[in-house]
Amino acid sequence: MKTAYLGLGSNLGDRRGRLVDALHELVVDPAISIVRGSSVYESTPVGVLNQPDFLNLVVQVETEYQPLALLDACLAVEARLGRERRERWGPRTIDLDVLAYAQMPWDDERLILPHPRMHERGFVLTPLAEIAPEFQLNGESVQILAARVGTEGLRPVLSWGELSALVGQRKRWADAS
Ligand code: GSY
Fold first, then answer.
1. Interaxial angle between packed helices 142-149 and 122-131, expressed in degrees from 0 to 180 and rounded to the nearest 10
2. Which entry of 15, 18, 29, 92 is annotated as an active-site residue?
3. Domain membership flag for residue 127
4. Is 117 a known active-site residue?
5. Is residue 81 part of a domain?
6. Is 92 a catalytic residue?
7. Active-site residue among 95, 155, 170, 172?
8. What digits encode the pLDDT tens for the residues 136-170?
9. 97 in catalytic set
10. What pairs with residue 59 in β-bridges?
11. Which domain holds residue 49?
12. Domain total in the chain
């Protein structure tokens, strides 16, 4: 089993509902266990600015998947949730990014680890610092990087406890139907 970090985001439609659905998909995957999650942050868009605000969070998972299989599992979740993305940096119903896989670097045409832009993104670093402040990225701790980038444009809107309760309800509903 390896520890990995996944970033989740949504800025189209029922954003919180899509995050709950995506986490439920991870929960029912026997090769993935969610160990902890951050609060959910509403965040102003980075990159293409003229799009709706995102909801973002980060989860720590234990997984039997190797990095590319974990990427495929994330892409499969996006596909099952009917991901819509009209342009590369534009709005999307659901986004699951593999941010890091243990301390293992990876670099091929499908996946670069750690995620090449995460060290400059507050919407990744602030939630990641909640759950893994000492995690090392390019020789610096997430806590230091998060403090440097700051929290401008980020508003905590839901705790991990509240979100995981919604995921539990979603699972009970799925199990009963
Ligand atoms: O892969 C990240 C998608 N994305 C986001 C995001 O998730 N949150 C914010 N705040 N801005 C973003 N820009 C892009 S692209």
1. 140
2. 92
3. no
4. no
5. yes
6. yes
7. 95
8. 998 999 999 999 999 999 999 999 999 999 999 99
9. yes
10. 6, 37
11. 2-116+155-170
12. 1
